[in-house]
Amino acid sequence: ERSRESTAHRLGDREETMANARSSAATMSALGARRPALARSRSLGVAGGSRRAGFASPPRATKPTLLLFDCDGVLVETERDGHRVAFNEAFVQKGLPSSLNWDVELYGELLEVGGGKERMKHDFSNRIAAGDEEMKAKVEGAGGLDEIAKDLHALKTDIMMDMVNANMMPPRPGIRRLIGEAAKAGVQMAICSTSNEKAVRAVLNSVLNAGDDLGVTLDDIPIFAGDIVPKKKPDPAVYELAAKELLGDTWKDQTQNCVVIEDSRIGAQAAKGAGMKCVVTLSIYTESETFDDIGVDKIVDCIGDEGEERVSLADMDLDEGSLWK
After folding, report:
1. Nearest partner of 101 among 155, 162, 21, judged by Cα
2. What is the pLDDT of residues 34-49, one digit of tens each?
3. Is-catalytic flag, 162?
């Protein structure tokens, strides 16, 4: 049986030559064994100062009630160099037709379908409808589209985790800075993704451990991922679930004070559909997408490292933040 380390090295070498050869390289998710002990209603920070007559009170610092991140394309540029590579490696290991290779352009088109299993079923169905008898036989032999997608997705997730653990995908610029600012300010964060929960957890762990201590641990950031909701993005279900779980019965009255960091059109649609503020940080696959009709609050090329900041927690101040002006 191949070791995790050898798989990561093999995938890295294979990607370097993918221009001349075939590139070789969410599942039912729960909130986790432990649900963080969170206050159902978080108080907003208020700047101190004198309230005596004749003295004006200082501006009120109203932090976001929740700061919610998508995973792929937001925390790490995972789609092109991670998930796509892992899918292709899974196809090879399972002996699927050699014609099944998700190149960069095709995978970009498939990203319009939310969820990895859904993406495979969509593509496989199209191939079968176009007369691919070999693919049809493979799908039937596996017990149908649902079964083959489930089996492949589990293998793909293991391959993806090998790649993450081998540090093959660094955090996107500024994402660690923003997480650190939110942790210092006491802002509750969470991850909301259509990807498999295990893969999301591995990506988040790699981001948190990619440098100096950020003052927050993996257990402090709940993950809402995979099949935890029946409908995936662009449906707002995953963001609504996060608000329900973290804010309690009054969540509907607080969604306008939640800020989402997304990278795609379908992700932004989900965030705005949940009534939340949304900042889009364009990724490799979404830089040409249009957002004008969605009403996103800000579009940037990245969050930006220190000295090159595009977005900071201070910009998200609900009263005075520059993002909302």
Report:
1. 21
2. 333 333 333 222 223 3
3. no
